[in-house]
Structures are given as structure tokens and as C-alpha cells.
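Worked example

This section walks through a single chain of length 218. The input is the sequence exactly as stored; nothing has been trimmed or padded.
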Amino acid sequence: MKKVLASAIAFGMLAWAGSAMALPALDPGFAWNDSDYWTITDLTTGVEGNSLFMLTMENASYESSFGLYTVDSVASPTAVTSSFQVFAAGDEPTTLAAVYFQEGCGSWQVSLDQTSWQAFDDTFGFYFGVANTGDTWYSDIAFNADGEEHVAIAYSTGLTAANIYLDDQYGGGDRDFNDMKVFGDDLAPVPEPATMLLFGSGLVGLAGVRRRKKAAKE
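Given that input, the structure is written out below as C-alpha cells.
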């Protein structure tokens, strides 16, 4: 997803001014990442692997599910082709789920129990499904009905892990992205990681300034 430098600068100024649009504080070792699509790194045999997810925080009036989705073309996506639920809307923080992947007969499959398998892909995005409103918010803003960003992702290269945050309100919400947080390990962004930095010498080093991923397509 292409970013415009001016958007980063503009957000930096808003954050410096104390805007409520700032993202949550980052966990140590994590940096904001603007990749829409991800893959697993734990391919122990080259054709199978898994990722462990944990629902770590839920601070919202609405209950939301969480899962993975695939598209017709990661390079130029036009449609969501499949989805795979990892957590149900009623699940509470500290719930764990191992998501297993395997390749067989030339195609990938995914499972939560290694017994029941669903056709899938090894490259995917993240989604949240808000049970109360029926809205589904995707990591790729192109599939969000209101055209707003609802999923923010922070990545740790050292841990090969991601924290995935939700802002659940239609129309952009309150921009705090603290309605739900999911941790996933053995993940890598597609393409390579891109850390969103604040620009402008006047912003660098200011206490309390938070970095924000801003979706702006050319």
C-alpha cells in the first residue's frame, strides 16, 4: 500500500498538537507497519507450519470476532476470496488459538485443530467482524465499507510477531485503535517491513508523540 510523505508529516503535526487520532503506545521492540498482507515464517518442513494467536485486550462496547482473509491477487486485490475465523466475538482476553497451515496437492489449507481443513492461502490479511453492527473491517482499507482505516498493525522483526489493533466504529471511529488487540507470532509482512516514521525535525524526540499509520493511496 503506497504512502504519501505529506500524510506522514500531516499526522505528525496532529499528534504533536495532542490529537485523539494517535495510535496506542507501542510494546517494546515493536514498530508500526503498513503492510496489508502477511505470511507465516514457521514453515518447518517447507510445506507446513503454524502461527499462535492470543486475544490480549478487549476494551469496547461491541464484541468482535477476529480472523484471516485471502484475496484474488495480493499485488492488485479486487475481492476477498475466503475468510477463516480465529476468535469468536464472545472470546475473552488471554484466549489462545494455534492456526495451522499445510500445502497439499498444490494448494494451501488452514485449520485450528489439524483435523478439519479449509482451502486457503499462505498469504493473508487480518479482519475484525463487529457482531453488534455487522461491519467487517480489513487490514486492506480497500475492502472497508466506509473507506476508513480500522486495523493498525505493529511488528517486531526480532520476534517475528505482530500486534493487531482494532478501531471498531463506522466512519473512522474515535481513532484510538484500542477496542481490541490480538498478538500473533511467526508472522512476516508482505512485502518487506516498512516502518512509519514521523517527519520534521520539530517532531523528533518530542515526549508523548505517537506514530500513526495513515492509509493514503496515490
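What to look for: The chain has a mean pLDDT of 82.
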